[in-house]
Amino acid sequence: MYERKLGDVVLQVDGISLSFGAMRVLNNISFNVRQGEIRSIIGPNGAGKSSMLNVINGVYHPQQGAITYRGKTRDLMKVHEAAQQGIARTFQNIALFKGMSTLDNIMTGRNLKIKSNMLQQAIYWGKAQREEIEHRRKVEEIIDFLEIQAIRKIPVGKLPYGMQKRVELGRALAAEPDLLLLDEPMAGMNVEEKEDMCRFVLDINDEFGTTIVLIEHDMGVVMDLSDRVVVLDYGLQLADGPPDEVRRNQAVIDAYLGVSN
Amino acid sequence: MSLSPDRKATVNAEQLNTFPKLLLNHANVRGRKIAMREKDLGIWQAWTWQQILDEVRALACGLAALGFKAGDKLAIIGDNRPCLYMSMAAAQCLGGVPVPLYQDSVAKEMAFVLDNADVHFAIVEDQEQVDKLLEIRDGNDAIGHILYDDPRGMRHYDFPFLDSIEQAQKLGREFDQANPGFFEQQAKAVDGDDIAIMLYTSGTTGNPKGVVLTYDNVIITARNGIVREGLTENEEVLAYLPMAWVGDNLFSYAQSFVAGFTVNCPESGATILTDLREIGPTYYFAPPRVYENMLTQVMIRMEDASRIKQRMFHYFMALAKRVGTRILDGKAVTFAEKLLYKLGNFLVYGPLRDVLGLNRIRLAYTAGEAIGPEIFDFYRSLGINIKQLYGQTEGMVFICVQPDGEVYADTVGTPAIDVEVKIDDNGEVLYRSPGVFHSYYKSPEATAKTKTEDGWVYTGDAGYFAENGHLKIIDRAKDVGKLLDGTMFAPKYIENKLKFFSFIKEAVAFGDRRENTCIFVNIDLEAVGNWAERRNLGYSGYVDLAAQPEVYDLIQECVDKVNEDLSRDPLLAKSQIKRFLVLHKELDADDGELTRTRKVRRSFIEERYAPLVEALYSDVAECHIETEVKFEDGRTGKLAADVKIREARQFTPVAKAS
After folding, report:
1. I want to staple B498 with a disulfide (CB 3.0 to 4.6 A). Which of A216, B238, B507, B623 is the partner?
2. Among B38, B39, B40, B41, which would you mutate to test the A interface (most chain A Cβ atoms within 10 Å of its Cβ)?
């Protein structure tokens, strides 16, 4: 069968520490993400996983440490800068426009790619029209890819949870990201929905070559999907390595199953 | 008793007697007319007959370049896609035989058919199907070459025997240039008595059998259907039923190739209802459950409508029920009723048909199983010309069809053009027609068992001709028994009649070699539960509800109506239900009482509930029973109840006045 080859390091996280007041959320976290990789961050509740993701795409600014993305070390990055650099994400609690259709929600993911100005769009002629057609085509390709044709025109608020998650993934994909951050994409799903989502994650990685950083609760999912796994617990980095290695790590076992003493 | 066809085919089929010849002709005569559509990336893409010919030609030449020869079988697996229909035509242009398979079969089931049919080439839709073939191919290289449509997920598949359809067509275009005239010569060499297609019947018992059909079988039958119903090149159909099923092959392929009408392929399985609305087909087929689901959807949505709309809906639906079917059948109604119906059409029926996507329907068929008369009449009263047909793979579908203006919910109509139907001494239906299959592939014994030497085919169904000359199918022949006095006993027929009532979920009829008919009834918890709530009738669960005297009254009404119905049937009048009981437990596939496809296992139930059956045939009014049940988590428990037994009302047989 086909061997996976991982590329160069695209994202380097170096000694990140983050506190909110006296609350230490992340403590000296370091790891890297390589081109074309599926990288997971796992850990029990409150381990700091989502905070880590928020640091990567510029929502939180860490007190210590540096993040190097594509060879550029940055300190204070704004969210839209992250987006411009090709980083897209989904959220643990779905953040869609509930009253808008699936199609329109995914279309908002094309926002940064729209070059025509508001006036041109209002007239809808020439460049704006060509652009709209091109964006619509891209969005339709995503709808096809995620197999959500049947809900194309349905307001997102009316959809079941699993479907909303899929639409959110579609919106992130619409930005054609190089690096895709997924915050618990399978949370609250049934087995079948999880399997579907796993397949989409693998297909995105395979078809578009997108590098994926994934936060997940479900250990089974993580171990099957990931090339490498970082384990966090109460802001501390417990382990980092391929799934098999992490699975055998005593500190990880203790954190997940509890220690008897 | 035998009935001869009254109308003969008027179209001369001599010249255009194969699909390759029909295709060449369409490209010539109506080259710019749209032959197929498929919704892709949200837009309906169209192919004209000329474009279809070009694609088929490239693919056929590509297949030839890869070594496909006349007589070879081509497996076709996937959802209804234009490229798969074109693959069928491509194989036929080379004198090959397409073998469509059910796309949801697992690899093991496919392996049997592929092996049995000697398949060496396959054209499939996507990775899912390719993976199954790879699994089968493992350790056995019988399948020589695989072509696929959708490349997604297969970028790392590096096998010399795997290509995309596009690659094959590229190869084909080069081959075509190097061998001018090859395609025409091959396409024209195919003749009417050559094998057109092999369709595997699902086979409820044993392995599936490959039904071999010739071009004459398929094309003459398709043409007769077109002639009888007056179909034209302007019809629009939606291709959404499995390609491996004979009906799809007839409606979405054969009849389109004969008449030249347009076939539309939905975007995906989940979008069928939306696509139906967008296309607005004029010619449509659906099994009863599709019509049933649509009706349920309408009723649920009406519950949420405003008071005024609800009243309007119910008023006009009541009117439609009174006069709608009469208007459709061209029978007399009063001027006032006609006027009111017109108003109803403007306010209710038209918008409703539009929502259902059935506004342009000129002809809708249903078949496969009995359709509830209420459902049937609902659609007909809206002005939708839905008719039942009776058919089989072995006869290329058409055996009987209901003629316009003579549509009854309980018959399947009169024999189709060129079809002869007779009933043998055991009550089994036999037919003979141009559509009668060539043979079962590689199975002369099975062929001889089904088809007599002079071409009559045993259907396996029991039925008889009603006084109006329409065929009435009552049951599978092997299930039909006799009461002690010799009256025919058709359990499924009685059970179906009961199940048409929404309150009755399942019914089991006993009577073979017994004095009279007695039944078990399972109530529909949801329907009866709702009914009970509206009457402020408290209940704790199924067992409790099933035993309530009010519920027994309710079920008694249904049973009595069935008896009244049966009394009008000269053959079955004496098999009226004598006594019935409402079973204390829902029949369940986990307990082996139903098959996985929810058919009752009559003999198993008879054994399991022997004391109850015994009580039915005695004169006691109540019976105590303990049953072992399996819970969903696998544990078992005991369920005890005192089941009451009631007498049903008997009706004196009357001859039906028609």
Report:
1. B507
2. B41
